[in-house]
TrEMBL record:
Designated name of the protein: General L-amino acid transport ATP-binding protein AapP
Residue ranges occupied by any ABC transporter domain in the UniProt entry: 7-241
Organism placement in taxonomy: Bacteria, Pseudomonadati, Pseudomonadota, Alphaproteobacteria, Hyphomicrobiales
CDD domains per the UniProt record, alphabetical: ABC_HisP_GlnQ
Similarity comment: family membership: Belongs to the ABC transporter superfamily.
Domain of life: Bacteria
Organism: Afipia carboxidovorans (strain ATCC 49405 / DSM 1227 / KCTC 32145 / OM5) (Oligotropha carboxidovorans)
InterPro entries: AAA+_ATPase, ABC_ATPase_HisP-typ, ABC_transporter-like_ATP-bd, ABC_transporter-like_CS, MetN_ABC_transporter-like, P-loop_NTPase
Keyword presence, Acetylation: no
Alphabetical list of SUPFAM superfamilies matching this protein: P-loop containing nucleoside triphosphate hydrolases
Xref: Gene3D superfamilies: P-loop containing nucleotide triphosphate hydrolases (3.40.50.300)
Gene encoding the protein: aapP
Entry keywords, A to Z: ATP-binding, Nucleotide-binding, Transport
PANTHER family reported for this sequence: AMINO ACID IMPORT ATP-BINDING PROTEIN, PHOSPHONATES IMPORT ATP-BINDING PROTEIN PHNC
Function field: Involved in beta-(1-->2)glucan export. Transmembrane domains (TMD) form a pore in the inner membrane and the ATP-binding domain (NBD) is responsible for energy generation.
Gene Ontology molecular function: ABC-type amino acid transporter activity; ATP binding; ATP hydrolysis activity
Amino acid sequence: MAADPIIRIEKLNKWFGAFHVLRDIDLSVARRERIVICGPSGSGKSTLIRCINALEEFQEGTVTVDGIELGPNLKRVDEVRREIGMVFQSFNLFPHLTVLENCTLAPIWVRNMPQKEAEAAAMRYLERVRIPEQAHKYPGQISGGQQQRVAIARALTMNPKVMLFDEPTSALDPEMVKEVLDTIVDLANDGMTMLVVTHEMGFAREVADRVVFMDMGQVIEVNAPDEFFSHPRHERTKLFLSQILR
Ligand SMILES: Nc1ncnc2c1ncn2[C@@H]1O[C@H](COP(=O)(O)OP(=O)(O)O)[C@@H](O)[C@H]1O
Ligand SMILES: [Mg+2]
């Protein structure tokens, strides 16, 4: 584990009412590290990554992002969110704005960037996700895979230090999964720190430095992908792998 992790989660506990959804989560992420999080539906994966950028409150423990500590009071929400880009399963683009406008909205309104500058920057990110030619279309006029790449470009326009992906390909038709995963691989190769919730185990093998397996609100096992897939240590991990790798 790195001496100076960019994300440090310590003794994180969260309840939804009486339901204990996250149990004593400890996880540190080094700069440039790529983490894949997997586990059964309902195990708390989304809730965990939503705690990292303060989309969820929690009752115990701390989440520290690049030295900014979030506790149960969520005092430093804005500071933490500035460091983090997030991409969801559903692309969440504004349908009435063009691709380019979707990508310039936050830089203009949150960062007060002049429009011309925001557009030039957005075009660079659209080039990076390889769809600059779609800039003047509306989300409804492009494919799901292209929409998800726009969502990635949009997150990048805020220049995040960490990217969180929550099942970024699970809403896509199968033929579009690869183009989105390839975009995430490109980002990883550029050194972006990332946490990716996904069941794409080929991606995990290729890209992850470590795979985190969650079940029932706990981190059950953390391991390098080779070890994780060839020698899962826990029965629950074995069961999960047997179900998804079939
Ligand atoms: N806002 C909420 N209120 C109450 N329960 C919730 C809420 N969000 C999620 N849950 C519950 O918490 C558990 C973990 O959910 P989630 O983090 O979405 O799991 P995963 O992403 O691993 O499928 C599930 O049992 C889910 O029903
Ligand atoms: Mg989820």
